[in-house]
Write a structure and sequence with these properties.
The protein contains ten helices and no strands. Helix 6 packs across helix 7 and helix 9 packs antiparallel against helix 10. The longest helix is centred in the middle third of the chain and has 23 residues. The two termini are about 15 Å apart.
């Protein structure tokens, strides 16, 4: 990652959108439910309580009343995102001592902040997959552009994958009785990120 954005990076950023809602259209989800998810992604935010309630009303089998449902799990991860991301950040800093120091891959501070922000967005995208019960929630094209962007900005990919794995570990730790249900969503993105060259 570099501190200044090159013209190439500026060109790649809007293309590096890693979520795809096409599988939901293929599963014949209501257009308004897909639009809710798309609007949240367009705004770079987690699903609001209103969004989750609308999804519960629009899609058969989704409910917010039962804490074991996908929507309730997505809400929990949203509500605890700050803590989950902080834990992942701390894990990366322990695993890669000096990464934020002069000469480290996440120096200066603006580079480290961009990394932690990506962790927050990775978790956000995973919650979309969970809320929509779509384990294949990523866009191949968007991931391709993210890979190019990470190459352009010299992002330390091993640290990013470690952070993503730490997001998964902390989420599973906080939701041990839901681990089997949510693991595939995290593993899907971990696997796709590991494939970056």
């Amino acid at each position: 990652m570099t501190s200044q954005l090159s013209d190439r990076a500026k060109e790649l950023i809007p293309k590096a959108r890693i979520v795809s809602f096409a599988p939901l259209v293929d599963r014949q989800w209501a257009a308004d439910a897909v639009a809710r998810l798309q609007a949240a992604d367009n705004e770079g935010r987690y699903l609001s309580n209103e969004d989750l309630a609308e999804l519960a009303g629009a899609v058969t089998g989704l409910s917010l009343e039962d804490d074991s449902t996908d929507l309730a799990i997505a809400r929990y991860l949203r509500d605890n995102a700050s803590e989950i991301v902080t834990t992942a950040r701390q894990f990366v800093l322990q695993r890669y001592p000096g990464i934020t120091e002069p000469g480290g891959d996440l120096y200066p501070a603006i580079r480290a902040e961009a990394c932690w922000r990506d962790f927050w967005h990775f978790l956000r995208c995973i919650t979309y997959g969970i809320a929509s019960a779509s384990q294949d929630f990523t866009s191949t094209e968007g991931l391709h552009y993210m890979n190019l962007l990470y190459q352009e900005m010299k992002v330390p990919l091993p640290a990013m994958v470690t952070g993503l794995e730490a997001l998964k570990a902390e989420s599973l730790k906080q939701l041990p009785d839901k681990a089997e249900a949510i693991d595939p969503y995290f593993e899907h993105l971990v696997t796709r990120m590991r494939a970056f060259q």
